[in-house]
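[09:14] KT: can someone run the structure on this one? pasting the chain below
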Amino acid sequence: MKTGEIVNRVANSVLVTIDLEEYYPSGERILFDIKDWLHEGLVLREKEFRTLIDAHDWSIYKNQYIALHCTSDAIIPGWAYMLIRLQLSGIAKQVVVGNLETLETTLYQKIIANLELDYCANKPVIIKGCSNKPVPQNAYLFLIDKLYPIAKSILYGEACSSVPLYKKK
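[09:31] RB: done, structure tokens below
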């Protein structure tokens, strides 16, 4: 090695980097508020609710991710969300009850459950921290659950400035 030559030790190491942003599923996210389908925004009347469901054009949600919620203080029975879910079957990619973070958490839970991480076995792994996409905090916990039994060590951040989280003894 020549004196003064810059060597990229990160590129030459066995360090594995996982960036959850790379797994972000493409598609539009919709926050579907059922408040407007309630009598005076507060009371769910079954007959009226079913009529609105039957009249609604569900095809506009084709291949979208839907979070069902209610912004009023109404008590919504579970069957109401199930009726909407049935209408979106075969149309929407995913439907959950909750906010957009709940939706993202559900998406990442499925993605991480299906990740094949054998290539991380007995290697130091860094989980990239900065993201331009809405990767939920729970996604990092799901990933830790999968990495903990197999990784030699787990770090968080960037290779140049990471925080050590775990080292196998």
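[09:33] KT: thanks! Helices lie at 46-55, 78-88, 100-113, 137-147.
[09:34] RB: yep, looked fine to me
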